[in-house]
Amino acid sequence: ARATALQALLREQAPRIEADRRVTDEVIDALTEAGLFKLTVPRRFGGYETDIRTVLDVSAAIAEGDGSTGWVVTLVSTCNWLAGLFSPQAQDDVFGADPDARVTGVFSPTSSSRKVAGGWRLTGRWYYNSGSWHSTWAVLGMPLTNESGEVVDQAMVLVPRAELTMEDVWFTAGMRGSGSNCLIAEDVFVPEHRVASVPGALGGEDLGGRGETGLFRSSFAPFVVAVIGGVQLGLGRAALKLVADKARTKPVSFT
Fold this sequence. Notes:
Blueprint: H1 2-5, H2 7-20, H3 25-33, H4 52-65, H5 67-83, H6 88-96, E1 103-106, E2 111-116, E3 119-129, E4 137-145, E5 151-160, E6 165-167, E7 181-191, E8 195-197, H7 198-202, H8 220-227, H9 229-247
Parallel strand pairs: 1-4
Antiparallel strand pairs: 2-3, 3-7, 4-5, 5-8, 6-7
């Protein structure tokens, strides 16, 4: 209901979101006040730790008002869920000081790493990081290497957005407001407790705290794939409504 109530504001802001190629601060503030960035935040941090259906319904309602905003909310919900798979210490880093944290990210390991005392040094570029303008943390793909530099595993890591730079590259015909730009790390230190195994997550391994509900026991790949469908539902409903409304006054051409 709170998401649906924001549709009027989203439609009002949509032209500016498209022109500025980013969700406006007014909309981000309204989403935060409505609690829509807390859908997949663990309950112990004041989040809702809700279910996949709720994430789909909220994403669809937001996307019906503005597609780019719906995509940002969906990707933050997905990446906040990913953050909830990390160690309790890592979760404290992200949500302990800011229950409204907005985690965005790119899963591809388009980076290099080297092991150092207490963690890893990370360098890389991650394109199409939706919501990058308003992100507070990022979950990023990173290859794990041995002493010879050979890749032996794949990980996802949590990095404060303040430690990354951004290249503004998102110039598209539609969905401009998603702000899917490139995040860049230059020899950033990632402590060991903010590194999680991707094969472990795919295999259902308990990487950290499981939360109070079954949300963080959801299968990894199905969750990541399923939740993004809400945006398409919302866009489809908006398109159908537009056509149906226009049909009342549109004549049949050439008759």
